[in-house]
Amino acid sequence: MIKNTVVAQVKFDYKGETYAPKMTIDLDSLMESYGEMPSVYLLLAQAHDIDTYSYQYEIMQDTEISFDNAQGLASTCLDDGVFDLSAFVVKWRDSKLLRLLQPIAQREMGIEDLMQHPQLKSALLHAYNLGSGSTN
User: Fewest CB atoms within 10 Å of the CB: 41, 59, 60, 136?
Assistant: First the structure.
């Protein structure tokens, strides 16, 4: 399975200097650890020793982050330097669920690949979400 990663960078000026914090974000690790995505600004600040209570951090937050080199599911959520984080979270959760549902479809119905049965896949995802109290 391909890891879900994306490269994030933000360029900004602070006290006459140009800063360009950049990092490759392991989206799978973050989703597994937190269940959602923390602020990319926070991740960049922590990776580059920028105090999150500083004016430098505030300036960084006022600058748009650019994304590139997305891998895995993340590549479907990247368009011209803009990463749709909320779409990625939905796709990541659905993918994780499908890995759990696939063996059930195999065992109970002999279906080896749920992706070949989009209506059944959709029905199983909806049933799971109803059972878990989610409305996605």
Answer: 136
